[in-house]
UniProtKB/TrEMBL annotation:
Source organism phylogeny: Bacteria, Bacillati, Actinomycetota, Actinomycetes, Kitasatosporales
InterPro entries for this protein: Cro/C1-type_HTH, DUF2690, Lambda_DNA-bd_dom_sf
Keyword match Membrane: yes
Organism for this UniProt entry: [Kitasatospora] papulosa
Region (Disordered): 105-140
Protein name per UniProt: XRE family transcriptional regulator
Keyword flag Cytoplasm: no
One Pfam family this sequence matches: DUF2690
């Protein structure tokens, strides 16, 4: 079964290219969607929408993905700016089309309302002038239909002209200041210590994700390559705690975090990655991560 869904056929070519580029980064990193969500601080559901063309990733998410996959941030943000302009044009077209439809309906409504408001003296057709009542009603209906169609045509011509003006601008505005990134999980202020589930010694032995210490509220402060695996120290200033993470690993590999006399360990399962429970760490330099692989290779991050 393919890893990715087919991108929507109506997706703008620039957006299609950008989504494919993000997918390529994730594929080459070997990370699962859950790992991407954990490392960037954006939810798994959000990343599924970004990668499947349903929503343009905010700048903060793109920068975070570049960091965790080793991509060049400047080049990726330049590609994001082009995609953001294409997304804005698509949203403008959709908005103007909906406004035109609403306007055409509004033009037709007064005539219909006037007919509906007219008093009805009898349910029988008028016999005056040889039954002219029904003919007059049919002529009125045709007149309202003609007015409605004229309104629709005029509105669509207005939309077509506006779209033409937008497209004439093309992507020549590469030097323009990009729109501010939309608010998202990666752009908010650090969480208050009163909101997370623990702090300092109270975090010892706890899961960094369930307590809220992970995601965008943590930093990778040290890393080392052991065999083919990547070992990292993750540290949260907000929680005053650290944990170890291992990726690109094999089932049975283990990873360990130490800070002073405290130590926690985690084992790799079927997903080729794992992280340990937390240890208290007032400073990032207090923590050190080590790995032992089933191949026999061992290694640790540098002290301090």
């Amino acid at each position: 079964m393919p890893r990715w869904k087919a991108l929507p056929e109506e997706l703008d070519p620039s957006l299609r290219e950008f989504a494919a580029r993000l997918r390529g980064l994730v594929d080459r990193s070997g990370l699962s969607p859950a790992a991407v969500a954990d490392r960037t601080g954006y939810s798994r559901t959000s990343w599924e929408r970004y990668l499947n063309g349903g929503l343009l990733a905010p700048r903060g998410a793109v920068v975070a993905l570049a960091e965790v996959t080793g991509a060049e941030p400047h080049q990726l943000t330049m590609a994001w700016e082009a995609a953001e302009r294409a997304w804005s044009r698509s949203e403008t077209r959709h908005h103007m089309t909906m406004e035109a439809i609403r306007a055409s309906r509004a033009r037709a409504t007064p005539g219909e309302a006037g007919v509906a408001a007219a008093p009805v003296a009898s349910r029988r057709p008028s016999r005056t002038a040889g039954g002219a009542g029904p003919d007059r009603s049919r002529r009125g209906g045709r007149r309202r239909a003609a007015l409605f169609l004229a309104g629709v045509v005029g509105a669509l011509l207005l939309v077509a002209g506006a779209v033409l003006l937008i497209d004439l601008g093309g992507d020549d505005d590469a030097g323009a200041v990009p729109a501010a990134p939309s608010a998202g999980a990666g752009t908010g202020a650090p969480r208050s210590p009163s909101v997370v589930g623990c702090g300092g010694a109270g975090c010892a032995g706890q899961d960094p994700e369930t307590t809220g210490c992970g995601g965008r509220f943590a930093d990778t402060v040290a890393r080392a390559t052991v065999g083919g695996a990547l070992v990292e120290v993750r540290w949260s200033a907000t929680c005053g705690a650290a944990w170890a993470r291992i990726t690109r690993a094999s089932a049975g590999d283990t990873v360990r975090i130490t800070a002073g006399s405290s130590e926690q360990e985690g084992a790799v399962g079927a997903e080729a990655e794992a992280y340990t429970p937390m240890v208290a760490a007032d400073q990032a330099s207090d923590a050190r991560a080590c790995a032992t692989l089933v191949s026999g290779a061992t290694g640790c991050t540098a002290p301090g």
